[in-house]
Amino acid sequence: MVYIAQDSLADLFFTFTWESSHATHIENYMAVDVSYTRDILPLGIKSRTRGLGEGDSVAMKMDSSEVPPFKPGKVLDMPIARFQAPLINGRYIKPRIGRFYPKHFIESVPGTRPDSDTPFRVVDWDRSGFKADLNHPMAGREVTVKAAITKIKKHHGAAGKLKRWPDSILKGPGMQARLPETPTDFLGAEPFKRDDESSDANFYSKPRMVHHMDSRARQNIQHAYANVLAGGMDILDLMAGHESHLPEGIEPKSVTGLGMNKKELEANTSLTDHLIHDLNEQPEMPFESNSFDAVICTASVEYLIKPHAVFEEVARILRPGGVFAVAFSNRWFPSKVIRVWTELHEFERMGLVSQYMIRSEQFEAITTLSERGWERPKDSDDRYAEELPESDPVYAVWSRKKRD
Fold it and tell me: What pTM was computed for the model?
């Protein structure tokens, strides 16, 4: 048995959990090739994992010095002329309450490089000015961290580049949480407009028997769904294709696929039934109320042009206490994706999906999950296997239908 020593190289799987005003948040991050000689880890992790072996883990509250503090002095009132966003897709971006933007959108930010992509948040605005929160998105959060040792590779010297793992892990989290008691303004400037407004039936008439994510990412979606799916359930796979990403080992009572291409649905071996239905044309679904224990939607929510109506329908067809789980990555069909999706940071997209759920007033116990940092498998059918070192990130949001 090999144990962590002062000069070890190891892979650590981190799980960070925290709460916001409307949801529970889980951030999973696979830290590969962690050097115990040179790298910086969350305070206390090195000392607590030394002497442990593969499969062991430690959990602790993250030290307050590791989480950026919230500083009221970093919330600044600015004239509207200071917001200098570039043209994006031929349109001017306006500041919207609750949204995040890179700091280089603000002219002459004190202490910030003019090309900085570090985010700031608009917390208020009117025609004359806006209030910019320059604090880190995780500022002031209380975070619990768990580190699991998945692999101990070898002993080595101090050569190599120092990695600050907390900086990598906390780059993004926080942006999915909305301001307390204030919905984020996602819905300005025709958010559901698409480059291609032609019939979806024509676009999806050709079967696409391909994977839109690498095999590690698909496995991570299965793990995400394992949090909420169980045997004996009646499951609806919404906007389904040739694969349903169900966790291995569960035995549902039924799995119904609702999608756009007959051949893809027929090729999906997880389905017990399927039907063709265009949600963008008709959000109402041909199911009785209280028909399903779970509804899943994988890599498709970004195409809905009437999401509020669809989420209302999902609530109708779910049984009380039933779960609605949505998962996605950072790829899509450019011509069919909704405009707002392309303008958001990856973590903000979880906030958008959460807000769909909140707006319906029929869901509770909202949870978001991010999964990042995994090495990309060298799959022969993955055209990005040699170009991208990391697996596609996975983001998920789930909640439960309120009980009467």
Answer: 0.95
